[in-house]
Amino acid sequence: MTAAPDSAHAFVADHQGQHYSEVLARLSRNAAVRRYLEIGVAFGDIFSGIACRHGVAVDPAFQLKANVAANKTKVSLFQVMSDVFFEHLDLRRDIGGRLDLAFLDGMHLFEFLLRDFFNTEAICRRDSIIVLHDCLPVAEPMTDRDPVQAGLRGRGTPHEHWWTGDVWKVVPILKRYRPDLDVMLVDAAPTGLVIVTGLDPSSRTLKKNYDAIVAEFSRVPNTGPEIAQIYAETLLVPTEEALRRLGGRSYAHGGGWLRKVMDAINLQ
Ligand SMILES: C[S@@+](CC[C@H](N)C(=O)[O-])C[C@H]1O[C@@H](n2cnc3c(N)ncnc32)[C@H](O)[C@@H]1O
């Protein structure tokens, strides 16, 4: 985590924590997750490792190879872009209630992740967890908004074929516009996890200011010094410590009458 970067293009050393698949799988088990949403599922590798009652998968082009039904009672697949999913979502019908855990890993452009974040937060509870992928890149080529260019620029480096796009910009956006959130930067290999808690499903700040935020952050250079700022401002949390901090959460007993009443109120 603190070692020197290993190539001229890198602005931080490779993340030393557990692989993000392991972190998410353990998190789902530790918290006894009931309802899980994954945006951007591809082969289903992460989704299959999540233990929950109902797993909801969204991807406009599934390439499933893993058993997405593993560790779950119920699975729903929506083969659409996330914006379409949220536009047509009927929470009660499609998910059955508010989410416990969400993993956002769809289009790797910051404006897409920003929309996925505020649309997801709106269907969470205050004690739910949203995990963002790829927001902690380790070298500049992988952050290119164009995946083809990222590939060309990364050729011959230790991070060949990596593409995070510029979703890292969501970290400073959340810090600036939503200081009420708890944003934990975790050193999960290979491109980090950002774990967001202390949610406010009623917040409309990001949605209301969306156009201004996108205009402002489109002007922020997508280059090493700006990205390095994230690491300079906030210490990375080791994966084991992150799991320990979230260890107190359990959704296992969420099926009682009080939770049902709360869910019913929140659904309106
Ligand atoms: C990096 S892959 C996801 C990998 C998966 N989460 C994992 O870790 O194994 C990104 C996926 O996002 C999907 N995607 C692209 N644009 C999207 C959008 N607008 N909404 C939802 N998914 C999108 C792509 O089809 C692709 O399968």
Architecture overview:
This protein has one domain: Vaccinia Virus protein VP39 (Rossmann fold), CATH 3.40.50. By secondary structure, the protein is α/β, with parallel strands linked by helices. It has twelve helices and seven strands. Helix 2 links the parallel strand 1 and strand 2 (52-58). It has a seven-stranded mixed β-sheet, sandwiched between helices. The structure holds S-adenosylmethionine (SAM).
Write the layout of secondary structure elements.
Elements: H1 20-30, E1 35-39, H2 45-49, E2 52-58, E3 72-78, H3 82-88, H4 91-95, E4 99-104, H5 110-121, E5 124-133, H6 147-154, H7 170-177, E6 182-186, E7 193-197, H8 205-208, H9 210-218, H10 224-233, H11 239-245, H12 257-267
Parallel strand pairs: 1-2, 1-4, 2-3, 4-5
Antiparallel strand pairs: 5-7, 6-7
The structure holds S-adenosylmethionine (SAM).
Features:
single chain, alpha/beta, Rossmann fold, 12 helices, 36% helix, globular, binds S-adenosylmethionine
Distance between the termini: 44 Å
CATH topology: the name is Rossmann fold
CATH class annotation? Alpha Beta
Tell how many strands the DSSP assignment holds: 7
- SSE topology string: HEHEEHHEHEHHEEHHHHH
Give the helix/strand class.
Answer: alpha/beta
Rg from Cα: 18 Å
Strand share of the residues? 15-25%
Number of domains: 1
Biggest sheet layout: 7 strands, mixed
Which regions have little confidence, pLDDT < 50, spanning 5+ residues? none
